[in-house]
Design goal:
- This protein is an alpha/beta fold.
- The protein has a single domain, classed as NAD(P)-binding Rossmann-like Domain (Rossmann fold), CATH 3.40.50.
- 40% of the residues lie in helices and 17% in strands.
- It contains eleven helices and 14 strands.
- The strands form four sheets. It has a seven-stranded parallel beta sheet with strand order 3-2-1-4-5-6-11, with helices on both faces. A three-stranded mixed beta sheet has the order 12-9-14.
- Helix 2 links the parallel strand 2 and strand 3.
- Helix 1 crosses helix 8.
- The structure holds nicotinamide-adenine-dinucleotide (NAD) and UDP-4-deoxy-4-formamido-beta-L-arabinopyranose.
- UDP-4-deoxy-4-formamido-beta-L-arabinopyranose binds next to helix 7 and strand 8.
Length: 341
């Protein structure tokens, strides 16, 4: 089977490409490196000892994108490519709508034109907005508070409309909770541009001495220690979830939607402590004001994915922290330095 992976040089995409190659899928990656490095591609080949096709294409360029469809008989698409920084999306909404929505519409047009009927979409727990309670089940009401989240919800809505209109389509919407961790080799991992927005890359940058102190956004939430609770999930578990989703699509289910989370919530302080245990590094922190838009508690009910995909998260918080640290300590400057040893 030929799988087109958009955004395959990115954090979750690169781990998923490795997993797909392990399962002997033929992989075609498209990326414009707007938030990734070409070095990732060699690292994927080094880990998997397999090759794949790559196109440096911006998905908002429909002519270039069409070449990928012309030259490859694509059977299914896993669509990771997107801009993903919540704060930036508030400041530059049009960038997010152009990049995330226009590119996806082009992809949908080409899918129709080249009769590609299987599609896996990277959605996010962000589409649950401020959930009334936890754990979060897939049929909870959907709402969003920022342009990034809205771009995800709009694409979900378009997919629902398309599946209603075209009975030949099989679509898996995967709503990720909080991905952290890295490949066991320490060769690929998360490399945010500039100061990280997400907590784990921030912690690892403090641990490696690139940032002085972690700011914890509020300790007055109604949680066990006052800090926010999230469902952190290992990126390797997420990657495996995509292979399970592809297998599900072979059963022609139409539209299916799954939470990919562990079902366990950890507070910021619990995460910091787990990271210190895993790395042997003390993480200096200060408590600052709450971050606008943050929810107190967010964790998944992942039982639907377990029941219907036979997928459940295997890795616990300690291993997630160990693997994040291995990646960061072997690559203190991200992909700008070679990981050895
Ligand atoms: P990432 O930024 O590491 O990867 C995205 C990749 O897409 C990058 O390599 C980037 O260069 C590429 N890209 C972006 N726009 C493109 C375009 N127009 N044309 C071609 N390539 C383009 O992000 P990630 O963390 O791997 O996230 C992957 C997907 O998962 C995204 O859709 C994101 O919204 C979603 N998601 C991420 C998280 C998270 O916390 N990481 C959580 C939930 C959902
Ligand atoms: C986790 C916890 C913060 C940074 C975001 C997106 C979501 C999804 C995943 C894409 C919270 C606290 C954080 C810091 C902190 N992405 N924190 N200091 O906000 O749950 O989700 O990433 O789809 O859409 O909104 O993740 O890692 O930013 O925060 O104290 O420097 O860590 O307040 O409690 P979040 P996060």
């Amino acid at each position: 089977m030929n799988i087109l992976v958009t955004g395959g040089a990115g954090y979750i995409g690169s781990h998923t490409v490795v997993e797909l190659l392990n399962y002997n899928y033929n992989v075609v990656v498209v990326d414009n490196f707007s938030n990734s490095s070409p070095i990732v591609l060699d690292r994927i080949r080094e880990i998997s000892k397999k090759d794949f096709k790559f196109y440096e294409v911006d998905l908002t360029n429909k002519e270039d994108l069409e070449i990928v469809f012309k030259e490859n008989e694509i059977d299914a698409i896993i669509h990771f490519a997107a801009l993903k920084a919540v704060g930036e999306s508030v400041k530059k909404p049009l960038d997010y709508y152009y990049n995330n929505i226009l590119s996806t519409l082009y992809l949908f047009d080409l899918m129709r034109k080249y009769s590609v009927c299987k599609f896996v979409f990277s959605s996010s727990a962000t589409v649950y907005g401020q959930p009334k309670k936890c754990p979060i089940v897939e049929d909870f009401p959907l709402s969003v508070t920022n342009p990034y989240g809205r771009s995800k919800l709009i694409i979900e809505d378009i997919l629902r409309d398309m599946c209603f209109a075209y009975s030949s389509l099989d679509v898996a919407i995967l709503r990720y909770f909080n991905p952290i961790g890295a490949h066991k080799s320490g060769l690929i991992g998360e490399e945010p541009d500039g100061i990280p927005n997400n907590i784990m890359p921030y912690i690892t940058k403090v641990a490696v001495g690139k940032l002085p102190v972690l700011n914890i956004f509020g300790d007055d939430y109604d949680t066990l220690d006052g800090t926010g609770i999230r469902d952190y999930i290992h990126v390797l578990d997420l990657a495996r979830g995509h292979v399970k989703a592809l297998k599900k699509l072979e059963e022609n289910p139409g539209l299916v939607t799954y939470n990919l989370g562990t079902g366990h919530g950890y507070s910021v302080l619990q995460l910091v402590n787990a990271f210190s245990r895993a790395s042997g590094k003390k993480i200096p922190y200060t408590i600052t004001d709450r971050r606008a838009g943050d929810v107190a508690v967010c964790y998944a009910d992942p039982s639907k994915a377990e029941k219907e995909l036979g997928w459940k998260a295997n890795y616990g918080i300690d291993e997630m922290c160990q693997d994040s640290w291995r990646w960061q300590s072997k690559n203190p400057d991200g992909y700008r330095e070679t990981a050895k040893g």
